[in-house]
Design brief:
Radius of gyration: 18 Å
Oligomer: single chain
Shape: globular
Strand content: 35-45%
Order of helices and strands: HHHEEHEEEEE
Structural class: alpha+beta
Distance between the termini: 49 Å
Largest sheet: 7 strands, mixed
Helix content: 25-40%
């Protein structure tokens, strides 16, 4: 009885909120993917990787620059993030802000919603990164062929 009660009490937040535990495999997987995705695409400007890691029908909603499809998103990454290697925008996540919510279809995981806060900096050679602002984000990832593919992005509260 005590074990059952303990199990139910531990599960209440999952039933009420749906967010996975920060020590779950899903949370760790999305946290790792976020780290790799933004390091390669935003910080290192690996546009080939960015192209492959985003869904063909990507939609990016930005509170300052409007709605972008994949072509416009890739164009803006090239133009705004990757055009000046001497004064490079950098993205860093506030790890403690990260939340992950699974998406199921008939009990089969097909995707996840990821929320958090990220900070932006300017990196110049020989200088400390200069903080320029922060924003909230919501990502919808689809799980396709065991790979997380970015399908929708909300970037807001800049």
């Amino acid at each position: 009885m005590k074990t059952t009660l303990t199990f139910l009490l531990v599960q209440i937040p999952v039933f009420l909120f749906g967010q996975v535990s920060k020590d779950s495999d899903l949370f760790k997987s999305l946290k790792k993917h976020d780290s790799i995705f933004f390091e390669k695409s935003f910080n290192q400007c690996d546009l080939k990787y960015t192209e492959e890691a985003t869904h063909p029908e990507l939609i990016f909603y930005h509170d300052k620059s409007g709605i972008q499809d994949k072509a416009k998103f890739l164009e803006n990454v090239q133009k705004n993030l990757c055009s000046n290697k001497e004064r490079k925008p950098i993205r860093k996540i506030q790890i403690e802000s990260l939340e992950v919510y699974p998406l199921y279809d008939n009990e089969k995981l097909y995707g996840a919603i990821q929320n958090g806060v990220h900070e932006f900096y300017i990196r110049e050679k020989g200088k400390e990164d200069l903080f320029t602002g922060k924003a909230k984000f919501t990502h919808v990832y689809l799980l396709q062929n065991n790979q997380w593919i970015l399908k929708e992005v909300l970037s807001y509260d800049h």
